[in-house]
């Protein structure tokens, strides 16, 4: 073009920004300024979109400064683009500051703020912002609902999720795959597999993400056979199978102990011209190791076409913890320490292996190493949602306002389940103390206190849902099975790895976890 104008520059910048080439879009700006063209609102909106996709707040701040110089920063569309850019860069304090200064807020600016909090993992603020948006008379869109459901899924706040779902129904918006997938994921991660299945069955237009989300839900609940059936249905229906699909089915096989099926599906990836990635190898190592085939898992690692990562060796180490194999466990731990020295998980696992096998000198050596390197074990905590509030507990917690009542309730629970055959499992007290102290140490774990409180507060027959930030303790797992039978309750526990659904004295995991 012999003569370029404001429109031609802006069109080219917008074109690159909209076609996933943010770096090229941003590189055009200096040339535009040298030509003495002054950016307008459309230019700034495209540049800020590119900076957000580039996830570089430094470049974004420079464009923000230019918008201020050109007096475009208070425009509602530029302001929304600014807000979205800072949110995509994870700078939520700046995003909120921009939002607060907007004279005229619109649905785009509200959605950008909510999705920013959702991406940042701040579910509570995302929910509060959503409620404020509704109070201010703005209608939620598919983008709004998708961000809110993603936030609730991370929180596991089922009641909040049902409230938002009800709002979707009242709005009479058609349940698209875009919203339906996040709704399905929300119910699955909030401990309601029944509702997740209902959403899946009622969706008219299922896409590969829908099928994969349902497959992931089966995997998380340890429903291996159901996952296999679902996967085979996907194949028959002609659903596009990608690497995520195979990762989901391999995870389901690992959680369900389906070694034969898992190995078959891993080999099947070649039929679909899919190259296994490192996550697939990690899952197969977990599949073999959890089933007790530690030597086969080692051989599998040595035959990998790429260098094993810390995650691969970590999967083997976790399996050694299950089977109390200190020799292979130390070998795996050495590799993890070398590849990822800052991870606190592996040293804790190694300590647990030595302590559970009575090798206290070796356990003490690991403790000293942890102290020297500054590695600290993450404190265990459990929480339960009740009437729009969350109650959190740690082991031996006496800070709750009703602590005395909770401890008394647990005492009554303990008496009842002991009569039914519950015996505290001392193997899960990894401290060198006498039996009396070991048993006392077991009694007031965070998940037990959360359950005792839930039994006090929740009406008879109501399902109890507990979240935990680390793996559920084996003794607590045993106690919860008895409690579900004695008290006639369904108990759902979401820990860092999976779900456990206790009912009538048994668990959905089939004690394979």
UniProtKB/TrEMBL annotation:
<dbReference type="Pfam" id="PF13041">
    <property type="entry name" value="PPR_2"/>
</dbReference>
<dbReference type="Pfam" id="PF01535">
    <property type="entry name" value="PPR"/>
</dbReference>
<protein>
    <recommendedName>
        <fullName>DYW domain-containing protein</fullName>
    </recommendedName>
</protein>
<feature type="repeat" description="PPR">
    <location>
        <begin position="5"/>
        <end position="39"/>
    </location>
</feature>
<dbReference type="InterPro" id="IPR046848">
    <property type="entry name" value="E_motif"/>
</dbReference>
<dbReference type="InterPro" id="IPR002885">
    <property type="entry name" value="PPR_rpt"/>
</dbReference>
<feature type="repeat" description="PPR">
    <location>
        <begin position="242"/>
        <end position="276"/>
    </location>
</feature>
<dbReference type="InterPro" id="IPR046960">
    <property type="entry name" value="PPR_At4g14850-like_plant"/>
</dbReference>
<dbReference type="GO" id="GO:0009451">
    <property type="term" value="P:RNA modification"/>
</dbReference>
<dbReference type="InterPro" id="IPR032867">
    <property type="entry name" value="DYW_dom"/>
</dbReference>
<dbReference type="Pfam" id="PF14432">
    <property type="entry name" value="DYW_deaminase"/>
</dbReference>
<feature type="repeat" description="PPR">
    <location>
        <begin position="207"/>
        <end position="241"/>
    </location>
</feature>
<dbReference type="GO" id="GO:0003723">
    <property type="term" value="F:RNA binding"/>
</dbReference>
<dbReference type="GO" id="GO:0008270">
    <property type="term" value="F:zinc ion binding"/>
</dbReference>
<dbReference type="Pfam" id="PF20431">
    <property type="entry name" value="E_motif"/>
</dbReference>
<feature type="repeat" description="PPR">
    <location>
        <begin position="106"/>
        <end position="140"/>
    </location>
</feature>
<keyword id="KW-0677">Repeat</keyword>
<keyword id="KW-0809">Transit peptide</keyword>
<feature type="domain" description="DYW">
    <location>
        <begin position="421"/>
        <end position="513"/>
    </location>
</feature>
<dbReference type="InterPro" id="IPR011990">
    <property type="entry name" value="TPR-like_helical_dom_sf"/>
</dbReference>
